Amino acid sequence: MKKHLFIFTFLLVLVSLHSSLAAQKPAGMVKKQATTSSLEQTASFKVLGNCGMCQKTIQNAAVSAGALSADWNMETDLLTVRFNTAKTSVDAIQKAVALAGYDNAGYKAEDATYNNLHGCCKYDRTGAAGGTKSCTEN
């Protein structure tokens, strides 16, 4: 009988303790403790382009592919993106930039897409250093 009473008391304490701990956690927060910042990543890669119009198009393409932020540096040809790894990837961002007409570290733009860029946006596709960065053509 004492053994049954001890087990009953132990179970009662255990249930009580579990109830008080469960009351402290909001619903939906049991094991999913991953924060957004742990899923965010920053990456930089080369994207060829010339001017402010290129910059706008490149950045918009990256954001349309899921980047949280995108900054293309005209002088260094580097695109720096911040993105949620659960929603997109560097590969997806690079594909979107290439589909917009801009060769990058992962993908080369289709010739037809490149040819449809504005005249001043037609960058040196060889990627050679010292390529022109001016928009003198109309």
What does this structure look like?
With about 140 residues, this protein is α+β, with helices and mostly antiparallel strands. It has helices at about 1-25, 35-40, 50-65, 90-100, 110-115, and strands spanning about 40-45, 65-75, 80-85. The protein has a domain at about 40-120: 2-Layer Sandwich (Alpha-Beta Plaits), CATH 3.30.70. The chain has 5 helices and 3 strands, in the order ααβαββαα. A 3-stranded antiparallel beta sheet has the order 1-3-2.
Give the tally of β-strands.
3
Count of DSSP helices?
5
**CATH level 1 class label of the domain at 38-119:** Alpha Beta
Mean pLDDT: 80
Shape: elongated
Unreliable parts: 17-35
Q: What portion of the residues fall into strands of 2 or more residues?
A: 15-25%
**Residues in helix, %:** 25-40%
In the CATH hierarchy, the third-tier topology of the domain at 38-119 is known as Alpha-Beta Plaits
**CATH architecture annotation name of the domain at 38-119:** 2-Layer Sandwich
Topology order in helix (H) and strand (E) letters: HHEHEEHH
Mind summarizing the main beta sheet? 3 strands, antiparallel
Structural class: alpha+beta
Oligomer: single chain
Strand order of the largest sheet: 1-3-2
Gyration radius, in Å = 27 Å
Ends: how far apart?
97 Å
